[in-house]
């Protein structure tokens, strides 16, 4: 709750992102979750008071090790996740005359509800939990302990563990919730701009996946920007992407439109280009500067297996005067279409561009009379196109953070372009 108060407020808007965690991800979580579960189940067992003799002696009990050979997770449609696990407890009983080691198997089951938390992140809570104990077996060849005492010791251990195991599982889940809370962290988009993701409603849970509808809040200089968005909600079809993958993420065209608008507002797409100009009007080489400013928001378009980006920059051509100041010669309205290739690295969506077709331009204004558009076109081709692509690809190569939590990366990702949206199919890797 404190974190929610510290974060800058943002207007609610639907930028159209859906994350599906599929059944394959549960198998991965089952594998990586065994070690934390084993650690969580190492509970303290108080001494057992032996009342069989004349003197009541406390018998110290220690859990030496917990091994979880089996952990299985399944989706419960409309609710959350069902957990089934088996754990083998190695227990040392410091009785007289000789210490005793026991192996006690336990079967654990629990149902966990997955919901939207107060700070718009996923929250997991244990709704029901039970433990079923099997008879303990004595390790080694110790036969000095009386069967009656062994029965009483097991009864004591079961009473303690049955009260504590579910509590410790619940504590483990609370630690998971802290980790899931990092979804709402701010990530840089470009200079002086950030993006923050958060859930916009309760998760949708089926027997195949859990789906989170996620909104992107955009910030410029620490302040939220207000976006005019299409009210039509983004719906990710099922199935889509790579079959059997751990995570499937749908990114609507509206999300890309908003990010490009943010970059434009931040001035990240503007650039200055220096060079020399040789034309009929300026027979002597002279230093010039091309100031490229994007007055219009870039337009991204997605068709099946094809992504394009249209830029309409305003280019002002300036030349150095005798006092080393720059004076405006003329200005151009330019339109250029780019092919956009998308890829994912760790938790970032990256892009590279290349020019499609010819660059179209028109003279917007001139302070030097008539401008030969054909000669200017050659100028644009040599001084404008290459620096523009280098600048744009450097910016897009930095990557836009995708929804993620700390220490969790996307691996072996595949990017698919569909009509009006992009899908990322990926494995998941948790880095401790």
From TrEMBL:
Gene3D superfamilies: Bactericidal permeability-increasing protein, domain 1, Bactericidal permeability-increasing protein, domain 2. One of its GO terms (molecular function) is lipid binding. InterPro entries: Bactericidal_perm-incr_a/b_dom, BPI_fold-BPI/LBP, Lipid-bd_serum_glycop_C, Lipid-bd_serum_glycop_N. Residues 1-16 form the signal peptide. Keywords: Signal. Residues 241-426 form the Lipid-binding serum glycoprotein C-terminal domain. SMART domains: BPI2 (SM00329). Belongs to the BPI/LBP/Plunc superfamily. BPI/LBP family. This is Bactericidal/permeability-increasing protein-like 1. It comes from Fukomys damarensis.
């Amino acid at each position: 709750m404190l974190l929610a108060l510290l974060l800058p407020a943002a207007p609610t808007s639907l930028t159209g992102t859906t994350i599906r965690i599929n059944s394959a991800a549960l198998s991965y979580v089952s594998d990586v979750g065994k070690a934390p579960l084993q650690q969580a189940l190492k509970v303290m067992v108080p001494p057992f008071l032996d009342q069989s003799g004349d003197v009541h002696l406390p018998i110290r009990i220690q859990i030496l090790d917990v091994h979880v050979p089996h952990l299985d997770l399944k989706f419960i449609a409309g609710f959350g996740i069902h957990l089934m696990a088996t754990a083998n407890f190695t227990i040392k009983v410091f009785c007289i005359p000789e210490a005793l080691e026991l192996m006690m198997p336990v079967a654990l089951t629990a149902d966990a509800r997955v919901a939207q938390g107060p700070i718009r992140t996923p929250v997991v809570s244990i709704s029901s939990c039970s433990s079923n104990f099997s008879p303990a077996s004595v390790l080694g060849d110790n036969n000095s302990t009386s069967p009656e005492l062994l029965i009483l010791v097991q009864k004591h251990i079961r009473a303690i563990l049955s009260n504590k195991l579910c509590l410790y599982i619940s504590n483990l889940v609370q630690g998971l919730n802290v980790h899931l809370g990092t979804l709402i962290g701010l990530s840089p988009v470009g200079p002086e701009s950030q993006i923050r993701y958060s859930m916009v409603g309760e998760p949708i849970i089926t027997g195949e996946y859990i789906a989170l509808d996620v909104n992107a809040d955009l910030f410029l200089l620490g302040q939220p920007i207000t976006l005019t968005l299409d009210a039509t909600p983004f719906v990710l079809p099922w199935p889509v992407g790579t079959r059997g993958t751990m995570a499937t993420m749908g990114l609507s065209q509206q999300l890309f439109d908003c990010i490009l608008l943010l970059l434009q507002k931040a001035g990240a797409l503007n650039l200055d280009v220096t060079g020399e100009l040789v034309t009929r009007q300026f027979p002597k080489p002279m230093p010039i500067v091309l100031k490229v400013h994007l007055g219009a928001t870039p337009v991204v378009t997605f068709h099946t297996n094809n992504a394009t980006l249209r830029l309409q920059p305003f280019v002002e051509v300036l030349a150095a005067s005798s006092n080393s100041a720059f004076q405006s010669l003329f200005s151009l309205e330019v339109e250029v279409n780019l092919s956009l290739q998308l890829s994912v690295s760790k938790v970032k969506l990256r892009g590279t561009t290349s020019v499609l077709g010819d660059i179209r331009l028109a003279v917007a204004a001139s302070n030097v009379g008539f401008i030969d558009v054909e000669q200017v076109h050659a100028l644009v081709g040599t001084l404008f196109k290459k620096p523009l692509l280098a600048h744009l690809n450097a910016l897009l190569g930095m990557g836009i953070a995708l929804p993620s939590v700390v220490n969790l990366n996307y691996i072996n990702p595949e990017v698919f372009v569909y009509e009006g949206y992009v899908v990322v199919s990926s494995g998941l890797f948790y880095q401790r």
